Amino acid sequence: MLPLRHWRLASHRLPAVGVWLRYLPLLPTGTPVHLYNGRLKDPQNIHAAVINIDVGTRDLQQCADAVIRLRAEYQFTQNPNQVQFHLTSGHDIWFSDWYSGKGFQVQGEDVFSTAKAVELPTHTVFRRYLDQIFDYAGTLSLSRELRAVPLAQVQPDDVFIRGGSLGHAVLVLDVAEHSVTGQKYMLLSQSYMPAQQVHVLLNHPRTGLGAGMP
Questions:
Q1: Listed residue (43, 147, 133) closest to 93, CA to CA
Q2: What is the pLDDT of residues 41-64, one digit of tens each?
Q3: Could you give the CA distance from residue 117 to residue 23 in angstroms, rounded to a whole number?
Q4: How far apart are the C-alpha atoms of 3 and 100, rounded to whole Å?
Q5: Domain range spanning residue 66?
Q6: How far apart are CA 114 and CA 33, in angstroms?
Q7: Looking at the predicted structure, is the pLDDT value of residue 208 above 70?
Q8: In a 3-state reduction of DSSP, which class is residue 8?
């Protein structure tokens, strides 16, 4: 398997996103990771914490979708009209168009514009929009929205990604730097397959480091 590549979203850097990610709400210590259908994830020994954000009731919010979800949630808090993502087909879908009555329908490789009800840009409507994005986007489409950056320049909101079939993506939540050696340490989060709660990863096998240590 090829290593994940370190990429950054190609759009203008949002400097406040690192602070927003740092203060994501967590479920109580020791909370297990659940799948979208309520079952327990197997295994349960790779996470240090579970982010308090819903996973939905369908098998949609997988690895790339969790990256999309967190970025979209941040953008929603700033300006809902910033939110837009590409489908795997390459079509660009803006939340502002979607809630204004411009939906879409996928037929094979084609995407057609369809009329839908005009709605207010509430969070409930936003979540329905995201479910449609999750359905037709993934690591391949997300990787096309990113640009490669040197690992030494890693920042919160960066993504480690391998696009395509059997791809994967993890999000950098935070970065710390040793005051003497300059060594950098990253706090990572992921979802996986089947869709599951977004969780903060433990540092294995080096358990002397990582989010699970006091």
A1: 133
A2: 999 999 999 999 999 999 999 999
A3: 35
A4: 41
A5: 5-201
A6: 37
A7: no
A8: strand
